[in-house]
Amino acid sequence: MPHANATLTERGRLKLAQCVVDDGWSLRRAAERFQVSHNTARRWATRYRQLGPSGMVDRPSRPHRCPRRTHVRLERKVLHLRRKRRLGPAAIAGRLGMHGSTVHRILRRHRQPKLATLDLATGEPIRRDPVRRYEWPHPGDLVHVDIKKLGRIPDGGGHRVVSRAQGIRNRWSTRDAGRGRGGDVNLGYGYIHSAVDDHSRLAYSEILPDEQAVSATAFWLRAQAFFAAHGITVHRVLTDNGSCYRSRIWRNALTAAGITHKRTRAYRPQTNGKVERYNRTLLVEWAYARPYPNEIARRRAFPHWLHTYNHHRPHTALGGSPPITRVLNLSGQDS
Fold first, then answer.
1. What is the pTM of this model?
2. For residue range 248-303, what is the model confidence (pLDDT) as tens digits?
């Protein structure tokens, strides 16, 4: 297959060579006609004289000679230690007085499998099942819940939009104005409470002023109603070990709905990975997607983004389909 930047394809090379060899064109005239250099025209004409049409294909770029290549005997010793002793590149290099990188290239050149894929007792490759994405079979089997803390944008823009000095001035002026009007969108932080269904990736989020137990529980009741409106009955909820999720009011709300509460192991956020990945997408595609002039403008854009995420945005884990396609008309789905 010709290189992507090649001026001539194999067919074009053949036409050029035939014009020079068979039709008697000069190299200069052929080079101008096919818009290549004089040396290129001579190379393909020479190949055509020697090999005919079969010489129009690309040759491998591998050198004909490699004087500094490791001797065959030494390569055999490397392969012997790998196969018999199951040693890694560093261990083999230490025994033979070689560089580890050289041993690694020898093993790759001879397509030796990695030690992690071998049975160390027999040296036979271990047959591994293909990696499958962890996923519950039906919507509502598990819902991931988490809170993302997000700094608010001052009026006039933060440091991502204006200079750092101007961003600080905007922050102070917004803080002073907020004290006077007592609005709920002042400086500080907003807390994005999110619930993501494990099977469908359908998401529900709200921006609340805090992460207290009362706010988290009220959010969950609204999220549960959202999922119910889409025909999803929630059976399990997975959260981290935040204080709001260990409170009595949270536990009572889940118990009253017959929902099992599961918590992640300490310092293992990847257990709640689906909502953690959703938080990252939320930051990239909404929170920091464009220079918002203030926090109110960013919050106004949030409902539209959330609708796009659920109904239109392709999701790689779902084969390029949006989450809503796994909610509608599903067989075996609880209603």
1. 0.58
2. 999 999 999 999 999 998 888 888 999 999 999 999 899 988 888 888 999 999 99
**Please, are residues 257 and 227 in contact by the beta-carbon 8 Å criterion?**
no
- Angle, CA of 140, 144 and 145, to the nearest 5°: 120
Which residue bears the tokens 């009007």? 181
Find, among 196, 193, 194, the residue nearest to 140 by Cα. Answer: 196
Kind of pairing between the strands at 189-197 and 203-208: antiparallel
Distance CA 211, CA 209 (A): 7
